[in-house]
Amino acid sequence: xxxxxxxxxxxxxxxxxxxxxxxxxxxxxxxxxxxxxxxxxxxxxxxxxxxxxxxxxxxxxxxxxxxxxxxxxxxxxxxxxxxxxxxxxxxxxxxxxxxxxxxxxxxxxxxxxxxxxxxxxxxxxxxxxxxxxxxxxxxxxxxxxxxxxxxxxxxxxxxxxxxxxxxxxxxxxxxxxxxxxxxxxxxxxxxxxxxxxxxxxxxxxxxxxxxxxxxxxxxxxxxxxxxxxxxxxxxxxxxxxxxxxxxxxxxxxxxxxxxxxxxxxxxxxxxxxxxxxxxxxxxxxxxxxxxxxxxxxxxxxxxxxxxxxxxxxxxxxxxxxxxxxxxxxxxxxxxxxxxxxxxxxxxxxxxxxxxxxxxxxxxxxxxxxxxxxxxxxxxxxxxxxxxxxxxxxxxxxxxxxxxxxxxxxxxxxxxxxxxxxxxxxxxxxxxxxxxxxxxxxxxxxxxxxxxxxxxxxxxxxxxxxxxxxxxxxxxxxxxxxxxxxxxxxxxxxxxxxxxxxxxxxxxxxxxxxxxxxxxxxxxxxxxxxxxxxxxxxxxxxxxxxxxxxxxxxxx
Length: 555
What we know:
The protein is α+β, with helices and mostly antiparallel strands. It has helices at residues 13-29, 34-53, 101-186, 191-202, 227-235, 290-326, 379-397, 402-416, 502-514, 518-522, 524-536, and strands at 4-10, 57-63, 68-73, 79-84, 210-214, 239-241, 252-254, 265-270, 277-282, 337-344, 355-361, 367-374, 422-429, 435-441, 447-449, 455-457, 477-480, 486-490, 545-552. Strand 2 and strand 3 form a beta hairpin. The radius of gyration is 60 Å and the shape is rod-shaped. The chain starts with a strand and ends with a strand.
């Protein structure tokens, strides 16, 4: 099959109408959809009208075997359009004069109706799509609102979590400081040391400066203190003085201090049951933090307890030391025997009471030199020491020797003080004799120095400690001490240190005795002082020390 072609002359509106009507019928027969047909015919009518206005034109129609139907209008504005027909156009193309105008008009109405129906359906679909789009938009807006609300809630939760973490970290930091500071304060039993440590702990993080006033300190009268400090001491309640109310938990507000009008002061009573003094803090910034204030209140309470404990300890220590010294008798003047003694209380700790020395003559003219140490410390140890000292003298008056005296003391202590023990060493010097009889009950060995400087430690095995719940009979030993010899009796505080064993201390004492010079030995008190220097120079002693030197001058 070949394409068919025909050309029509359009000279009038009637020609144009017939041509349009014929093409309308032709496209309808070829199965062109009404909408495509209407678009084609409308465009053709516009071109034909323009061609008539320009004086006429020729319309060329071409139908191909592939279903293509083409129309072209020549003239000043050429136009061409091609339709794809479902059914191919065959045979010759009829001329426009064959198209009845009435039928063409009715067909045009049908096409218009079909187009309008399509438009109506399209408008309905468009309306439905618009409603669906509106509902979708409303859903999207609602979803956005929910997401925004969820985001705000999440942000609030994160802020609350951050705040909770910050509060927890602050509480942890304050609690850690309180724990460490309390340990530092309660580690000391010296109230001056506690007063010195308070500013070191608080400045500069918690206070610009710190002042501690003890209520019984006559050196600093109340007139030298801020009014809030005096009020806190009088009422026992914490006081805040500043340009503006502090509104701190558990703290009363007062006007600004005349001494410090521009800086807030926090005055905290020291102590729990009784007010030991007042801790006055100047704020490190513009105000005191409420959480920090709670911690400072507790710290002041604990500091007051530490001060009270320190003072009670110092009073107890002073009483024990006074009792101890009162029971250490003056050494007797004995022909043929020089004596020198030293008693040094512990430099720190409550390790006072229990160590003693004694020297006295027996009815037969011999002299007993005694050194002893009661376990435990404080007033009770000092009292027991006094009882042992008295009992020892009583047993000695009856003529008992060193071993028998220790046996009787052991028996007495077992029955009267079953939970208390003691060590003791007794040496008996007899005028005119070179031999010295001695016995020991768990006591460190005596050290002897011969007249030519030779030193030996009396290492014979000592007996049990006094008071051990076992029956025991002590033995006596003898040592030869010619004239010019020195026997050193001492308690363990002289030779024992935490950093070294007691054997190292005994060796050091032996070396110190060996290097004593003639000038030092000429005066036994000087020799005692000389011995103490190398024994104590390297550290403070945390136990009582008793030293008794005995020098034979004839025999």
